[in-house]
Amino acid sequence: MAGNPNWKPGVSGNPNGRPKKGETLTDLLGEKLDKDKFVRRLISLAWKGDMTAIKYIYDRIDGAIPQKSQIEAEVKQDVKFNINPYPNGN
Fold first, then answer.
1. SS3 for 24?
2. Domain ranges of the chain
3. What is the mean pLDDT of the chain?
């Protein structure tokens, strides 16, 4: 992040880098999980009315429903915005 005082220029925030293939939790679960059995169980739960299973399947097929967020803030001082797209007078 530019201008962040916690980071020095040229120094990585992740010195060890990305984990090697096969070392992440996702990789380990993928190796151990019987995917066909998992899908059959998920579908079985959905057919029995398990709303969590139904939502999971729906979110994977049609995508999750976008959630609206509202942010409220109180400004304690006057804030001025420069909306000129050419601040140098160009």
1. coil
2. 33-62
3. 80
Q: Which residues are CB-contacts of 68 (< 8 A; sequence separation ≥ 6)? A: none
Long-range contacts of 50-59 (CB under 8 A, 24+ apart): none
Q: What angle do CA 64, 69, 72 make, to 5 degrees?
A: 170
Rounded distance between C-alpha atoms, residue 56 and residue 39, angstroms:
11
Return the closest-CA partner of residue 43 out of 35, 51, 34, 53.
53
Task: Look at residue 89 in the predicted model and tell me its pLDDT.
Answer: 58
Return the higher-pLDDT residue of 79 and 48.
48
pLDDT in the model for residue 56: 92
**Residue among 34, 15, 31 nearest 23 (CA):** 31
